[in-house]
Amino acid sequence: MVSSLDAFSYLVGIITISIQGYSTYWALTIRRTLFIHLYRAQALGIAIVGLVYAASELGSVLYYNARVLTFNPILSVIALALLCIFYWIDKSMSSARRSNPLLRDTAKWSKARIALWPLIVVMESLLFGSSLLGEFSGPPVPLSGVEGIILGLFGFLLALIVVPLVGVLLLPLASRRSGDATLRRQIRWFGAFALFVFGTVLLAPFTGSATATTFAQQVVGLVGGSGAGYALYRSAKSLVPLNKMAGTE
Amino acid sequence: MVSTGLSSLDQLVGGDGYPDRSVVLAVGAPGLGKEALSYWFTHSGLLQGDFCLYVTRHSVSEVLKNAKAFGLDFGSRVPFWIARDGGELKCNVKDLTSLSFNIKEVLRKNSDRRIRIVVDTLSALLMLNSPETIYNFLSTLFDDVKRYDVVLLGTVEDGMHQPQTLVAMQELFDGVVEFRLYEEGLRVTPLLRIRKMLGVQPQPGYYSFSFTSSGMEVSAYAK
């Protein structure tokens, strides 16, 4: 027998996954029409972020409500999302440089990225290889025990600091300097997406427990998930100027 | 007529290419491939023995790499570069006077040949200066350029400038090739149209296009 709370959770899950899927569809559709690798990669970044977000929602429903999953995928999904967001930030920084009239390389990004990518990969590897993830997911991990948890936490926190820091500080600066209105619009909507996601994550401890789902959690999930989905959809559609064909043309 | 380097586009702009002594503008959103028009135009000119001048805010290596992505290898035949790095002359988009002087000097020295000029700095110039300044700068430059046997192809980004600025820019040019993405329901279609071309009847139609290693494929678009 499915409780009313479970039914509501399924509904929230379906709505959120649908909106995120729609964002991903638009990002991929626009990607297909572009011929320059950099812009295609940027569109792919948005599509992957949408996919990961939809996967996190699906994982959450399968773990909390359907109880099909025997492990909580939330930590691994957040880690994966950080990696995807960093990929999109990287491509957007390169795109901002390309549209800058003087080709200004904000914070020497073309060199900084060479140092940051291995750092991010190491941080994520520490998390995925540590027992911190094991605490949530259950399977045996190479870095076990307290040390494993500490290493995983270290990697996770560092990635949690580095990625948003780069995104919040450098990306708006680079886009403002580029003077590209289309890029600025895309980044603004992606920023709104990030705000909805972090808002939902931050509110989670105040709306219920970590082991069971509550009605308040689901309401926050619905508002946050739909808002994030809509913002990502607008970001995807801001990748390039889209025109409507007039009826007379 | 001066071949565009793409037989499919030659057909669209009047049969044999861009009109003689004309200035043509390619407008389009970033990523749609309007730069490819510059690469093919230059490549074709080099093969025909025309003098080709490429004015770019990028470095020579970046342009060659981008051209390669469209299947074009300039090989040993290369244009005369006014570029950010690696060219014969330095391109400084902040200095309109030296840019204009350099272009005119190069034209004067090669006035006995047919000349093709590619300029990809228009968006950068519009971002760094007022539209009025650039309008006057280009008007004067085009008057001087057209005294020679020249065809100039400029590119400008859509979505980066005010619509009225783009309209004013299009007024200055003899021909305008427009690349745009059109949204129809759940589909997005990249379409091309010739907004105007000197000596050619206005063509209201849209064309779908795609790039292949051997050039560009164009077909009339039916809704």
Descriptive overview:
The complex is a heterodimer of chains A (249) and B (223). Chain A has 8 helices and 1 strand; from the N terminus they run ααααααααβ. Chain A is mostly helical and 249 residues long. Chain A is globular and about 55 Å long. Chain B has 223 residues and is of the alpha/beta class. Chain B has 7 helices and 10 strands. Chain B has helices at residues 7-12, 34-47, 60-69, 96-109, 122-128, 131-145, 163-172; strands spanning 22-28, 51-55, 80-83, 89-90, 115-119, 150-157, 175-184, 187-196, 207-212, 215-220. In chain B, strands 4-3-2-5-6-1-7-8-9-10 form a 10-stranded mixed sheet, sandwiched between helices. In chain B, strand 7 (175-184) and strand 8 form a beta hairpin. Chain B is globular. The mean pLDDT of chain B is 93. The chains are: A mainly alpha (249), B alpha/beta (223). At the A-B interface, helix 1, helix 2, helix 3 and strand 1 of A face helix 5, strand 7 and strand 8 of B. Strand 1 of chain A pairs parallel with strand 7 (175-184) of chain B.
